[in-house]
Amino acid sequence: MFTAVEGARVPIRMWADPATVEDAAMRQLHNVANLKWVHGLAVMPDVHYGKGATVGSVIAMRDAVSPAAVGVDIGCGMSAVRTSLTAADLPDDLGKLRRRIEDAVPVGFAMHRTPVNPARVPGTGGWTEFWQAFGHLHTGVQNLRDRAQAQIGSLGGGNHFIEVCLEQGGPDAGRVWLMLHSGSRGIGNELAKRHIDIARKLPHNADLPDRDLAVFVAGTPEMEAYRRDLFWAQEYAARNRATMVALVQQAVADTVPGVRFDQPISCHHNYVAEETYDGVDVLVTRKGAIRAGSGDLGIIPGSMGTGSYIVRGLGNETSFHSASHGAGRRMSRTKARKTFTAADLAAQTDGVECRKDEGVVDEIPAAYKDIDSVIRAQTDLVEVVAHLKQVVCVKG
């Protein structure tokens, strides 16, 4: 259940203990809740400080949207696929499987030498029309089309990952799942930064408590341009994940012939949607949150050593049909690098085939909140469908 924090234009509905949220994040939440366009604000149990708006916040606005509250990785999200395999079907050498996935999907700053043939991505049509729409995006990104095409089907870095997981408990214990987390790569970032800069300069944003909360308002050319680019980037992110799913499935099939795959589950967790609550049409920004409408399947990952959850939404309107997007960080990347070593990372990812070097120490499990506690804090938002534990993790 949520706690209502008063003292702003609208109450802050929190599925986290306010006493455990850092002061800087609470100030951000109050700043958002005092914006004149805000219809409501819901805060997820993985909440933590972000740029402008906290990660783990759901902001419902009337006739307005804040591009910084969406974030720069527009459309970032998750995909998961259950396979016909069980743990016994996996090769003894999981390093071979990890390397096969890394060969199939570029990670970090890498991209494909030539764009992935859309014919390799079943169930996703409309590629010609999608790329034709690129010519209508912000003029500042028109020289990036070739790069954007080459990055479709690539992972990126930071907290993005590809995993091979085993289902925990229940009748399907040991069933193998594939899971990945990625977004709109460089093109989403470029579009977001340009629109954030435009919003900051608009006169109606001059007196905001935080320049990163600058908004576009309905009926203006700036809003129209942002919505066009935003929804295109969200589609790019979805197509990027669909392409990676196809590539990872082929990598697994090359390693374990005869495998079959269920239909993928996919969800954004940095995005905007047009929805209606209390009879009011609003633009809902989920920054580090997934849609959890009644029956919606979603994915809530933990860290690279702790496992993840497949969930089903319960349709709770007080959260604007939302739930958390993950465990959420409990310390910054900088602090994690200063606090932990590669040896600590190796110990905390024991039993997982993954990188264990200094380059990914900032992704160490101890830098994240406890995923089981996060799940328990939102039992009125989602029900657990499956608990997964990774055995292979690919990081950028």
TrEMBL record:
Into which EC class is this enzyme placed?
A: ligase
Q: Decide whether keyword GTP-binding is in the record.
A: yes
Q: Does the keyword Heme apply?
A: no
Which keywords does this Swiss-Prot/TrEMBL entry list?
A: GTP-binding, Ligase, Manganese, Metal-binding, Nucleotide-binding, RNA repair
User: What are the transmembrane regions?
Assistant: none
Q: Which cofactor does it need?
A: Mn(2+)
Name any one GO molecular function. Answer: ligase activity
InterPro entries annotated for this entry? RtcB, RtcB-like, RtcB-like_sf
Reactions catalysed according to its record: a 3'-end 3'-phospho-ribonucleotide-RNA + a 5'-end dephospho-ribonucleoside-RNA + GTP = a ribonucleotidyl-ribonucleotide-RNA + GMP + diphosphate
SUPFAM superfamilies, A to Z: Hypothetical protein PH1602
Pfam families according to UniProt:
RtcB
Name of the protein = 3'-phosphate/5'-hydroxy nucleic acid ligase
Provenance organism: Amycolatopsis deserti
